[in-house]
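Methods, example record. To illustrate the input and output format used throughout this study, we show the complete record for 7-dehydrocholesterol reductase. The sequence lines were provided to the predictor; the line carrying structure tokens was produced by it.
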Amino acid sequence: MLSCIFCILQCYMISVSSSCREVDWFSLGGVIFLLMFAPLIVYYFVMSCDQYQCALTGPVLDLYSGKTQLSDIWDRTPLITWKAVYIYAAWVSFQVFLYMLLPDICHKFIPGYVGGVQEGARTPAGVVNKYQINGLQAWIITHIVWFANAYYLHWFSPTIIIDNWIPLLWCTNVLGYSVSTFALIKAYLFPTNAKDCKFTGNFLYDYMMGIEFNPRIGKWFDFKLFFNGRPGIVAWTLINLSYAAKQQELYGQVTNSMILVNILQAIYVVDFFWNEAWYLKTIDICHDHFGWYLGWGDCVWLPFLYTLQGLYLVYNPVQLSTTNAVGVLLLGLIGYYIFRMTNHQKDLFRRTNGNCVIWGKKPKYIECSYTSADGKRHNSKLMISGFWGVARHFNYTGDLMGSLSYCLACGFDHLLPYFYIIYMTILLVHRCIRDEHRCSSKYGKDWKLYTDAVPYRLLPGVF
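The corresponding predicted structure is encoded as:
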């Protein structure tokens, strides 16, 4: 329940951040709640696995019955260690090296991949930033090193991440809070672009939601792009591989459910880096400012809560029947196909201005017009063909199908693995509503024509 409240408040805070500069009392209360309880939520999930075999109700029931006290739970929690500090410092330094000092070469020999120097969207102040897109290259090099170590070099154990999981949690918190605090100070003293700063006058709100739009150090080190992808998402697949190695160590085998989680989530991660240039045009880069929400969230929330399925399977190995395993795999693959093809259709439609073929036909669309902030009138097209004629956010539907497949791989004995689908459902449903509110304000009566043509948001006939 607490995690659901967090999701709702998080969504609300994003919408407030993107729409106004004044902070009401509810927003301030939400900020205080998130700053206080989001770290505790992450700790609670990880601690529940470490001490209660991933039973979320275990700590609460023990505390309620008097079997244990908060001090006992804390005393059993591993603290930060120098080994974890060295591991995490080496990890972040390696990712900085790959990001800053190795320009992308993958786009030169991988057909269809867009890498190298790319332009982002225009900021509110009119700035068009350039980015060094080399995330796929960083992911490939990182995993080559990982497998080379596991099979030939033997510098460290493949279980190194799970063996130091809670000490690493403290290290990621140190970095998350440090980079968020630095971003706040930087916005006041030496902003990258003063015109793209947003000051509300409320310290806690500015700290959480961010002041600078695109904080940078030098020409290329962009805080948003680096922290969103490199320390967390590159690590995502390594974390899952470490979980699989721990299963092998503990039980002498890797279950098919663990293999499914590794494969399905790896598809999502590789897709993210394959489309990193496309990511520059998404809400995270185009609308959000960089503060604690992104800084701490990317360092802590993402790697520790997005990988809960694999962590659960370390403590509760599940061997699915062949039928169930195939069903989970198909759900994940179909969800990914819908997610990727829906986004591809929109990208193709935009790049060709509608002069393309989708599902064997020239796409249908609704002509729209809107007035920009400078008073100029612009024309736009909203596609109502292909997947975009099925539902207005059918890409989110595919994303949710993939998210559900990760959870179903874990069986039904505990609630913890299903946190991800609960979180993503709340997040994406709210994003649907937020996007449509912005589009309704932007397009006016033309938006009504569009919603009449495509009446459902996610599930045809349902929602």
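Annotations derived from this record:
Residues 1-6, 16-20 have pLDDT under 50 and may be disordered.
Strands lie at 116-122, 128-133, 216-217, 221-222, 365-371, 377-383.
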